[in-house]
Design goal:
- This protein has about 80 residues and is mostly helical.
- The protein has one domain.
- It contains four helices and no strands.
- Helix 2 crosses helix 4.
- The radius of gyration is 15 Å and the shape is elongated.
- The termini are far apart.
């Protein structure tokens, strides 16, 4: 079950929504792979690895990276003042 395909993203979404959808998609992947409602940590790690390398999460990783860079740069600017 791939929850990221069930939750459509419009052009109006903001990065925090992407992060939560990405997190739920990874959890859904772990649940589907393990076959239980509460997957063991090993399944969660496998799902997290899948989120880092799987092509279907490329857009989500890009948005998370951009959001991280914006937050780090704004933190750096406020620190240097």
């Amino acid at each position: 079950m791939d929850i990221s395909r069930q939750l459509p993203l419009s052009g109006n979404t903001v990065a925090p929504h992407i992060k939560s959808i990405f997190r739920f998609a990874l959890r859904a992947d772990a649940v589907a792979a393990s076959g239980t409602v509460l997957p063991e940590p090993g399944w969660a790690v496998r799902a997290f690895r899948g989120g880092l390398v799987d092509k279907r999460y490329t857009k989500d990783r890009l948005w998370l990276g951009i959001s991280t860079l914006v937050l780090l740069s704004s933190s750096l600017v406020s620190f240097l003042r």
